[in-house]
Amino acid sequence: MAAQGARDQTPIDHIEIPVYGNVAADQIRLPRVPEEDETFDYSERTQWIRAAVLGANDGLVSVASLMMGVGAVKQDMKAMLLAGFAGLVAGACSMAIGEFVSVYTQYDIEISQMKREMMKGNCGNECVEEAKKKKLPSPALAATASAVAFSIGAVVPLLGAAFIGEHKVRMLVVAVLASIALVVFGGIGARLGRTPMVNSCVRVLIGGWMAMAITFGLTKMIGSTGLEM
Hints:
Elements (H helix, E strand, L loop, with lengths): L1 H26 L18 H28 L3 H45 L3 H9 L5 H24 L4 H27 L3 H27 L6
Helix pairs in contact: 2-3, 2-5, 2-6, 2-7, 3-5, 5-6, 6-7
């Protein structure tokens, strides 16, 4: 009986322990809790993200490059600030008008397409309801986003130069602040659109550096030829 009990007990120990261990290690999968709503369509943000990010980067790079170019031949702080402010106003107006015209063209095209579909389909009220549900681009929203974003980007180098009296230090501060802001704007755009953040930041930063360096270098070269400024 003792031997029989030992034989009966052995397979129980042999079966329970390894199988339980395998299940716990290899087969049990805890449900993954999503950090964010993965069903959200981030493409819906494309219109205003594009306008805002483009406006901010353009304002920052344009005004910073303009101020760097003026600073290459003029050490007067007033000249740099006036050039930067003129660039802010002109650029914001240009961005707003350009976005308004561009998006309004897209708006007219989509309206015309919906009208053609309604006439061709003879679907009456169903087509009207479907057209109301369709999201159309907003020219005013795109223009406002571009102008405001451009102004925000352009203010960064202006503020950096406004409180620095030493010319070389002022130029360095403008370049450093512009670089930091470029990384921030690139990161914001990547975060809102759920795209790779590092790639976005590096791409925007290198583009901004190239614009400032080219503007500074060409203006310095022209100024060194003896052209009256």
